[in-house]
Design a protein that fits this description.
single chain, 202 residues, alpha+beta, Aminopeptidase, six-stranded antiparallel β-sheet, four-stranded antiparallel β-sheet, 27% strand, binds coenzyme A
Length: 202
Protein backbone atom coordinates (compact mmCIF):
# COMPACT_ATOMS: atom_id res chain seq x y z
CA UNK A 1 0.00 0.00 0.00
CA UNK A 2 1.55 3.36 -0.95
CA UNK A 3 2.31 5.89 1.75
CA UNK A 4 -0.22 8.69 1.96
CA UNK A 5 0.92 11.52 4.14
CA UNK A 6 -1.23 13.64 6.41
CA UNK A 7 -4.84 13.40 7.37
CA UNK A 8 -7.07 13.19 4.33
CA UNK A 9 -10.02 15.57 4.47
CA UNK A 10 -12.81 15.31 1.93
CA UNK A 11 -15.48 17.69 0.77
CA UNK A 12 -18.59 17.03 -1.26
CA UNK A 13 -21.47 19.30 -2.23
CA UNK A 14 -22.94 19.27 1.27
CA UNK A 15 -20.40 17.54 3.48
CA UNK A 16 -16.99 17.79 5.02
CA UNK A 17 -15.24 14.63 6.23
CA UNK A 18 -12.37 14.85 8.69
CA UNK A 19 -10.43 12.31 10.72
CA UNK A 20 -11.11 11.82 14.42
CA UNK A 21 -9.91 14.34 16.96
CA UNK A 22 -10.10 14.78 20.74
CA UNK A 23 -13.59 15.95 21.58
CA UNK A 24 -15.32 13.42 19.31
CA UNK A 25 -15.75 10.90 22.16
CA UNK A 26 -19.26 11.93 23.15
CA UNK A 27 -20.59 11.89 19.60
CA UNK A 28 -19.05 8.50 18.77
CA UNK A 29 -20.35 7.05 22.03
CA UNK A 30 -23.81 8.46 21.39
CA UNK A 31 -24.00 6.53 18.10
CA UNK A 32 -22.54 3.27 19.41
CA UNK A 33 -24.91 3.22 22.39
CA UNK A 34 -28.04 4.09 20.38
CA UNK A 35 -30.31 1.01 19.98
CA UNK A 36 -31.72 2.30 16.68
CA UNK A 37 -28.30 2.93 15.14
CA UNK A 38 -26.92 -0.37 16.43
CA UNK A 39 -29.91 -2.55 15.55
CA UNK A 40 -27.95 -4.32 12.80
CA UNK A 41 -24.39 -3.66 13.97
CA UNK A 42 -22.35 -6.38 15.72
CA UNK A 43 -24.02 -7.40 18.97
CA UNK A 44 -26.18 -4.28 19.26
CA UNK A 45 -25.76 -1.13 21.35
CA UNK A 46 -22.83 -0.78 23.72
CA UNK A 47 -23.29 0.52 27.23
CA UNK A 48 -22.45 4.22 27.51
CA UNK A 49 -19.30 3.37 29.45
CA UNK A 50 -18.09 0.78 26.90
CA UNK A 51 -18.94 3.11 24.00
CA UNK A 52 -16.97 5.96 25.56
CA UNK A 53 -13.94 3.73 26.23
CA UNK A 54 -14.08 2.42 22.65
CA UNK A 55 -14.32 5.98 21.30
CA UNK A 56 -11.33 7.14 23.37
CA UNK A 57 -9.23 4.25 22.07
CA UNK A 58 -10.16 5.00 18.47
CA UNK A 59 -9.24 8.66 18.88
CA UNK A 60 -5.90 7.77 20.47
CA UNK A 61 -5.13 5.37 17.64
CA UNK A 62 -5.88 7.96 14.95
CA UNK A 63 -2.37 9.40 15.17
CA UNK A 64 -0.91 5.98 14.28
CA UNK A 65 -3.18 5.32 11.33
CA UNK A 66 -1.50 6.10 8.03
CA UNK A 67 -4.09 5.16 5.44
CA UNK A 68 -7.24 3.76 6.92
CA UNK A 69 -9.34 6.18 8.90
CA UNK A 70 -12.67 6.83 10.46
CA UNK A 71 -13.97 10.18 9.21
CA UNK A 72 -16.51 12.31 11.03
CA UNK A 73 -19.20 13.53 8.64
CA UNK A 74 -20.03 17.21 9.15
CA UNK A 75 -21.84 19.74 7.01
CA UNK A 76 -19.79 22.24 5.06
CA UNK A 77 -21.88 25.21 6.09
CA UNK A 78 -22.28 24.33 9.76
CA UNK A 79 -20.20 22.06 12.01
CA UNK A 80 -23.01 19.69 13.01
CA UNK A 81 -21.89 16.08 13.16
CA UNK A 82 -24.12 13.68 11.21
CA UNK A 83 -22.16 10.45 11.61
CA UNK A 84 -19.01 8.72 10.46
CA UNK A 85 -17.67 6.68 7.56
CA UNK A 86 -14.60 4.48 7.70
CA UNK A 87 -12.19 2.27 5.86
CA UNK A 88 -10.91 -0.51 8.06
CA UNK A 89 -8.99 -3.70 7.75
CA UNK A 90 -11.38 -6.57 7.35
CA UNK A 91 -12.21 -8.34 10.56
CA UNK A 92 -15.04 -10.04 12.32
CA UNK A 93 -16.75 -11.91 9.50
CA UNK A 94 -16.09 -15.57 9.08
CA UNK A 95 -15.97 -16.93 5.56
CA UNK A 96 -14.79 -20.50 5.11
CA UNK A 97 -14.49 -20.27 1.33
CA UNK A 98 -13.12 -16.86 0.47
CA UNK A 99 -9.87 -15.35 1.56
CA UNK A 100 -10.94 -12.00 2.97
CA UNK A 101 -8.04 -11.45 5.34
CA UNK A 102 -6.38 -8.71 3.28
CA UNK A 103 -9.53 -6.86 2.40
CA UNK A 104 -10.45 -3.32 3.34
CA UNK A 105 -14.05 -2.72 4.28
CA UNK A 106 -16.31 0.30 4.16
CA UNK A 107 -18.49 1.10 7.18
CA UNK A 108 -20.74 3.96 8.31
CA UNK A 109 -23.10 5.08 11.03
CA UNK A 110 -25.36 8.12 11.04
CA UNK A 111 -27.52 9.62 13.76
CA UNK A 112 -31.16 8.69 12.95
CA UNK A 113 -32.22 12.31 12.41
CA UNK A 114 -29.95 12.38 9.34
CA UNK A 115 -31.16 9.16 7.71
CA UNK A 116 -32.77 9.05 4.26
CA UNK A 117 -31.21 12.28 3.01
CA UNK A 118 -28.56 10.61 0.85
CA UNK A 119 -25.80 11.47 3.32
CA UNK A 120 -24.23 8.01 3.67
CA UNK A 121 -23.90 7.56 -0.08
CA UNK A 122 -22.55 11.09 -0.55
CA UNK A 123 -20.00 10.64 2.24
CA UNK A 124 -18.86 7.25 0.95
CA UNK A 125 -18.03 8.47 -2.56
CA UNK A 126 -14.87 10.49 -1.79
CA UNK A 127 -13.76 7.75 0.59
CA UNK A 128 -14.04 5.23 -2.23
CA UNK A 129 -12.20 7.60 -4.56
CA UNK A 130 -9.44 7.77 -1.95
CA UNK A 131 -9.42 3.97 -1.62
CA UNK A 132 -9.04 3.42 -5.34
CA UNK A 133 -7.02 6.45 -6.42
CA UNK A 134 -4.73 7.15 -3.47
CA UNK A 135 -4.47 3.70 -1.90
CA UNK A 136 -4.72 1.86 -5.21
CA UNK A 137 -6.91 -0.87 -3.77
CA UNK A 138 -8.24 -3.48 -6.18
CA UNK A 139 -11.51 -3.72 -4.34
CA UNK A 140 -13.40 -2.56 -1.27
CA UNK A 141 -15.77 -4.87 0.56
CA UNK A 142 -18.70 -4.22 2.87
CA UNK A 143 -20.85 -6.44 5.01
CA UNK A 144 -24.47 -5.95 5.92
CA UNK A 145 -26.68 -8.03 8.15
CA UNK A 146 -29.16 -9.66 5.80
CA UNK A 147 -32.02 -7.61 7.28
CA UNK A 148 -30.22 -4.24 7.07
CA UNK A 149 -32.02 -3.06 3.95
CA UNK A 150 -31.03 0.59 4.35
CA UNK A 151 -27.35 -0.19 4.35
CA UNK A 152 -27.71 -2.64 1.47
CA UNK A 153 -29.48 0.10 -0.50
CA UNK A 154 -26.61 2.54 0.18
CA UNK A 155 -24.15 -0.01 -1.20
CA UNK A 156 -26.38 -0.69 -4.19
CA UNK A 157 -26.42 3.05 -4.96
CA UNK A 158 -22.63 3.03 -4.77
CA UNK A 159 -22.67 0.09 -7.22
CA UNK A 160 -21.27 -2.52 -4.89
CA UNK A 161 -22.26 -5.98 -6.08
CA UNK A 162 -24.01 -8.11 -3.51
CA UNK A 163 -22.56 -11.61 -3.61
CA UNK A 164 -25.08 -14.36 -4.19
CA UNK A 165 -24.16 -16.49 -1.20
CA UNK A 166 -24.83 -15.35 2.32
CA UNK A 167 -22.72 -17.69 4.41
CA UNK A 168 -20.83 -14.91 6.06
CA UNK A 169 -21.28 -14.51 9.77
CA UNK A 170 -20.28 -11.52 11.83
CA UNK A 171 -18.62 -11.83 15.22
CA UNK A 172 -22.04 -12.13 16.87
CA UNK A 173 -23.01 -15.05 14.59
CA UNK A 174 -25.45 -13.02 12.46
CA UNK A 175 -25.77 -13.85 8.78
CA UNK A 176 -24.38 -11.16 6.51
CA UNK A 177 -24.25 -10.32 2.86
CA UNK A 178 -20.87 -9.63 1.37
CA UNK A 179 -20.82 -6.67 -1.04
CA UNK A 180 -17.88 -5.97 -3.31
CA UNK A 181 -16.88 -2.94 -5.36
CA UNK A 182 -14.01 -3.58 -7.75
CA UNK A 183 -11.73 -0.74 -8.81
CA UNK A 184 -12.26 -1.72 -12.44
CA UNK A 185 -16.02 -1.31 -12.08
CA UNK A 186 -15.70 1.89 -10.07
CA UNK A 187 -13.67 3.48 -12.87
CA UNK A 188 -16.39 2.72 -15.39
CA UNK A 189 -19.11 4.41 -13.32
CA UNK A 190 -17.38 7.69 -12.53
CA UNK A 191 -20.02 10.28 -13.19
CA UNK A 192 -20.80 13.88 -12.35
CA UNK A 193 -21.87 13.01 -8.83
CA UNK A 194 -18.58 11.37 -7.99
CA UNK A 195 -16.62 14.01 -9.86
CA UNK A 196 -18.12 16.63 -7.53
CA UNK A 197 -16.33 15.06 -4.59
CA UNK A 198 -13.07 16.72 -3.79
CA UNK A 199 -10.10 15.18 -2.04
CA UNK A 200 -8.13 17.55 0.17
CA UNK A 201 -4.94 16.32 1.80
CA UNK A 202 -3.58 18.33 4.66
C1 LIG B 1 -27.36 2.69 6.89
C2 LIG B 1 -27.29 4.20 7.04
C3 LIG B 1 -25.85 4.65 7.17
C4 LIG B 1 -27.89 4.82 5.76
O1 LIG B 1 -27.69 6.21 5.78
P1 LIG B 1 -28.54 7.22 4.90
O2 LIG B 1 -27.83 8.53 4.84
O3 LIG B 1 -29.94 7.20 5.38
O4 LIG B 1 -28.44 6.52 3.48
P2 LIG B 1 -28.96 7.12 2.11
O5 LIG B 1 -29.98 8.21 2.38
O6 LIG B 1 -27.77 7.44 1.29
O7 LIG B 1 -29.70 5.87 1.48
C5 LIG B 1 -30.67 5.14 2.20
C6 LIG B 1 -31.53 4.37 1.20
O8 LIG B 1 -32.29 3.38 1.91
C7 LIG B 1 -33.66 3.51 1.55
N1 LIG B 1 -34.46 3.02 2.65
C8 LIG B 1 -34.70 3.63 3.82
N2 LIG B 1 -35.49 2.86 4.59
C9 LIG B 1 -35.73 1.73 3.87
C10 LIG B 1 -36.49 0.56 4.11
N3 LIG B 1 -37.13 0.36 5.27
N4 LIG B 1 -36.52 -0.40 3.15
C11 LIG B 1 -35.86 -0.22 1.98
N5 LIG B 1 -35.12 0.88 1.70
C12 LIG B 1 -35.07 1.84 2.65
C13 LIG B 1 -33.83 4.98 1.27
O9 LIG B 1 -34.99 5.26 0.51
C14 LIG B 1 -32.53 5.27 0.51
O10 LIG B 1 -32.60 4.84 -0.83
P3 LIG B 1 -32.92 5.89 -2.04
O11 LIG B 1 -31.85 6.94 -2.01
O12 LIG B 1 -32.90 5.06 -3.26
O13 LIG B 1 -34.28 6.49 -1.75
C15 LIG B 1 -28.09 4.71 8.25
O14 LIG B 1 -29.41 4.22 8.14
C16 LIG B 1 -27.49 4.23 9.55
O15 LIG B 1 -26.62 4.88 10.12
N6 LIG B 1 -27.96 3.06 10.06
C17 LIG B 1 -27.47 2.53 11.33
C18 LIG B 1 -26.03 2.04 11.26
C19 LIG B 1 -25.84 0.95 10.22
O16 LIG B 1 -26.71 0.10 10.01
N7 LIG B 1 -24.67 0.98 9.56
C20 LIG B 1 -24.35 0.04 8.53
C21 LIG B 1 -23.87 -1.23 9.10
S1 LIG B 1 -23.55 -2.39 7.77
Amino acid sequence: MPKFSGNPVFETCRLRLRTLQPGDEEFLALLDSDPEVMQYVHSGPLSRHAALEFAKTQIELTQYRQHLHKWIIEFRDHPIQAGWVELSKFEGVFDPEHSLGDDISLGYELAPSFWNKGIAAEAARPVLAYAFEALKLNRVVAFTRIDNVRSARVLEKLEFQQQARRHHKDDAGNECWLHVLWATHWRTILDDKQGASLIVDR
